[in-house]
Amino acid sequence: MTRTPATQMDAARRGIVTPQMALVAQKERRTSEEIRGWVAEGRVIIPANHAHASLEPNGIGSMLRTKVNVNLGVSRDVRDYDVEMQKVRSAVDLGAEAIMDLSSHGDTQPFRQRLCRECPAMVGTVPVYDAVIHYQRDLATLSADDFVDVVRLHAEDGVDFVTLHCGIARETIDEIRRGTRRMNIVSRGGSLVFAWMSMTGNENPFLERYDEIVEICREHDVTISLGDACRPGCLADATDGCQMAELLRLGELTQRAWDRDVQVMVEGPGHMPMDQIAANMKVQQSVCKGAPFYVLGPLVTDVAPGYDHITAAIGGALAAASGAAFLCYVTPAEHLALPNMDDVRQGIIASRIAAHAADIAKGIPGARERDDRMADARRALDWDAQFAQALDPAIAWAIRDSRAPEDDHGDTCSMCGKFCAVRSMNKALAGERVDLL
């Protein structure tokens, strides 16, 4: 009797095109066989938990459109789950392909289950965050079994990918304590694993029990997002020995998951000078054998609190153009506060601009068509057509409407008025008089 494929990768390696692969192929203007082949190799992933019934699948890989993730979730100080669901709906409307629930307070499971019932975007979580909350016990009292059981709980609830900080090991503790870094560890999950190892004297449970966790992920077709506990949190720590040592370990763990047909993506920096970004993308692609790279930013300067959605968009565009497949959005509230609705909107749009610019640079099929339609609409001074092509039509319309020229016949804006170059050229080429006064 033929066995039902356990995962998307398992199906792909057996020559089976799943409905999810077929849909991704249609979205990406690729053939189903191309998608199947890339999933089999691990170069494309389709995070799709069997239990996430509302999911509209998307593929993640450097040869596909660059995807955008949105982080949200409650904290002790900001804990309204209804507001978080509003953020989810706004994020999906603005084109985000993934939502990560990073809640660190309250009754987290009902919200996570609601996400998996209602959210069409991929859903990701970081189980180590939830361990203390789920068990309502301090970190040092938790066992390795507790951490593994939380991974299982998240998989059963329907999440499509889990971030696991498997790359930090006992020797990392010694290196950090030697004071070689300016910012130590800035990964929240990484810091929790570091603290747990420091307090208990034990090895990282996500590393020590990795094969068991892989089997849980295989059972539910949960994609493993290998977290970068040692990602640089400032420019001074970029591409240092701690980051590179962890990346080498993540490369080994990628292969171990692939050996069991479990999909993997690898997380990356972080804060990084612009001149190091392309090289980091190439190193990751080599070390991790082409597994999709998921980057936070990178932020290209440390001195722009309140504007880090811009510093991240600059780095994200460079990273994606150089091979990163998945951008985690950064909001103006980064380093400052839990993002509100407006922060979420600004962060998503900044990341989508970065992703789109990179897709054009990479020659992703169809990426520039929208820009060409915008150019045609601008040449025709067709404002409705321009708004239709805009990444954020509402804000574009609102700006024009609030500052429309006094004598608005639709052929100018309040910047240039009748001195508009497009208007002048259209009239001149049509043999008409160009009136300016």
Automatic annotation (TrEMBL):
<keyword id="KW-0479">Metal-binding</keyword>
<dbReference type="InterPro" id="IPR037509">
    <property type="entry name" value="ThiC"/>
</dbReference>
<dbReference type="GO" id="GO:0008270">
    <property type="term" value="F:zinc ion binding"/>
</dbReference>
<keyword id="KW-0949">S-adenosyl-L-methionine</keyword>
<keyword id="KW-0456">Lyase</keyword>
<keyword id="KW-0004">4Fe-4S</keyword>
<feature type="binding site">
    <location>
        <begin position="228"/>
        <end position="231"/>
    </location>
    <ligand>
        <name>substrate</name>
    </ligand>
</feature>
<keyword id="KW-0784">Thiamine biosynthesis</keyword>
<dbReference type="GO" id="GO:0051539">
    <property type="term" value="F:4 iron, 4 sulfur cluster binding"/>
</dbReference>
<feature type="binding site">
    <location>
        <position position="165"/>
    </location>
    <ligand>
        <name>substrate</name>
    </ligand>
</feature>
<comment type="similarity">
    <text>Belongs to the ThiC family.</text>
</comment>
<feature type="binding site">
    <location>
        <position position="413"/>
    </location>
    <ligand>
        <name>[4Fe-4S] cluster</name>
    </ligand>
</feature>
<feature type="binding site">
    <location>
        <position position="420"/>
    </location>
    <ligand>
        <name>[4Fe-4S] cluster</name>
    </ligand>
</feature>
<keyword id="KW-0411">Iron-sulfur</keyword>
<dbReference type="GO" id="GO:0070284">
    <property type="term" value="F:phosphomethylpyrimidine synthase activity"/>
</dbReference>
<feature type="binding site">
    <location>
        <position position="71"/>
    </location>
    <ligand>
        <name>substrate</name>
    </ligand>
</feature>
<protein>
    <recommendedName>
        <fullName>Phosphomethylpyrimidine synthase</fullName>
        <ecNumber>4.1.99.17</ecNumber>
    </recommendedName>
</protein>
<feature type="binding site">
    <location>
        <position position="100"/>
    </location>
    <ligand>
        <name>substrate</name>
    </ligand>
</feature>
<feature type="binding site">
    <location>
        <position position="294"/>
    </location>
    <ligand>
        <name>substrate</name>
    </ligand>
</feature>
<dbReference type="GO" id="GO:0009228">
    <property type="term" value="P:thiamine biosynthetic process"/>
</dbReference>
<dbReference type="GO" id="GO:0009229">
    <property type="term" value="P:thiamine diphosphate biosynthetic process"/>
</dbReference>
<feature type="binding site">
    <location>
        <position position="271"/>
    </location>
    <ligand>
        <name>Zn(2+)</name>
    </ligand>
</feature>
<keyword id="KW-0408">Iron</keyword>
<dbReference type="GO" id="GO:0005829">
    <property type="term" value="C:cytosol"/>
</dbReference>
<feature type="binding site">
    <location>
        <begin position="187"/>
        <end position="189"/>
    </location>
    <ligand>
        <name>substrate</name>
    </ligand>
</feature>
<comment type="pathway">
    <text>Cofactor biosynthesis; thiamine diphosphate biosynthesis.</text>
</comment>
<feature type="binding site">
    <location>
        <position position="416"/>
    </location>
    <ligand>
        <name>[4Fe-4S] cluster</name>
    </ligand>
</feature>
<keyword id="KW-0862">Zinc</keyword>
<feature type="binding site">
    <location>
        <position position="335"/>
    </location>
    <ligand>
        <name>Zn(2+)</name>
    </ligand>
</feature>
<comment type="function">
    <text>Catalyzes the synthesis of the hydroxymethylpyrimidine phosphate (HMP-P) moiety of thiamine from aminoimidazole ribotide (AIR) in a radical S-adenosyl-L-methionine (SAM)-dependent reaction.</text>
</comment>
<dbReference type="Pfam" id="PF01964">
    <property type="entry name" value="ThiC_Rad_SAM"/>
</dbReference>
<feature type="binding site">
    <location>
        <position position="129"/>
    </location>
    <ligand>
        <name>substrate</name>
    </ligand>
</feature>
<dbReference type="InterPro" id="IPR038521">
    <property type="entry name" value="ThiC/Bza_core_dom"/>
</dbReference>
<feature type="binding site">
    <location>
        <position position="267"/>
    </location>
    <ligand>
        <name>substrate</name>
    </ligand>
</feature>
<dbReference type="InterPro" id="IPR002817">
    <property type="entry name" value="ThiC/BzaA/B"/>
</dbReference>
